[in-house]
């Protein structure tokens, strides 16, 4: 459950390390983002000479959250951090990630939402 001004880790190799969410997409009154939601964030910390720079505004999808997430079978899943994956802006597929590597596990609900490419690049789908 992430809201405006939440700091998140960026779980891909674009060069960004930490971002700050400032808008949750999906309605004017949408307050919290969960797994699979789109967010707009600004890069707070980035590595030098990489794809993205500090202060850059990007669109990302939430791949991990600390708040327990209820699955369809009634079980809950919870992660150690709030993490996002940056999406490409001018791609033909709106679910296309900007990076070519994903770090850490992602839930299988993300693959069911249409992010098959992120699911295939992740080292573990739980």
Report on the structure:
- The structure is a single chain.
- With 126 residues, this protein is mainly beta.
- The chain has one domain: Beta Barrel (Ribosomal Protein L14).
- The protein is built from 2 helices and 9 strands.
- The chain has helices at 108-112, 116-121; strands at residues 7-10, 16-24, 38-46, 57-64, 69-70, 76-77, 83-86, 105-106, 124-125.
- Strands 1-2-3-4-7 form a 5-stranded mixed β-barrel. The protein has a two-stranded antiparallel sheet with strand order 5-6.
- A hairpin with a 5-residue loop joins strand 1 (7-10) and strand 2.
- It is globular, with a radius of gyration of 14 Å.
- The chain starts with 6 loop residues before the first strand and ends with a strand.
- 31% of the residues are buried.
- The model has no long low-confidence stretch (mean pLDDT 95).
Classify the beta-strand content into a percent band: 25-35%
Bin the helical content: under 10%
CATH second-level architecture: Beta Barrel
Taken together, the total number of domains comes to 1
Largest sheet: 5 strands, mixed, barrel
Per DSSP, the total helix count is 2
Defining key terms:
5-stranded mixed β-barrel, single chain, 9% helix, 9 strands, globular, Ribosomal Protein L14, two-stranded antiparallel sheet, 126 residues, mainly beta
């Amino acid at each position: 459950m992430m809201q405006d001004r939440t700091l998140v880790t960026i779980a891909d190799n674009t060069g960004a390390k930490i971002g700050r969410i400032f808008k949750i997409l999906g309605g004017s009154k949408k307050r919290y983002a969960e797994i699979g939601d789109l967010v707009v964030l600004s890069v707070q910390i980035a590595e030098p000479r990489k794809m993205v720079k500090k202060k850059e505004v990007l669109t990302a999808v939430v791949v991990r959250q600390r708040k327990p997430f209820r699955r369809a079978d009634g079980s809950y899943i919870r992660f150690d951090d709030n993490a996002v994956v940056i999406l490409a802006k001018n791609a033909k597929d709106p679910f296309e990630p900007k990076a070519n590597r994903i770090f850490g596990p992602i839930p299988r609900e993300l693959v069911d939402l249409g992010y098959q490419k992120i699911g295939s690049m992740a080292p573990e789908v739980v």
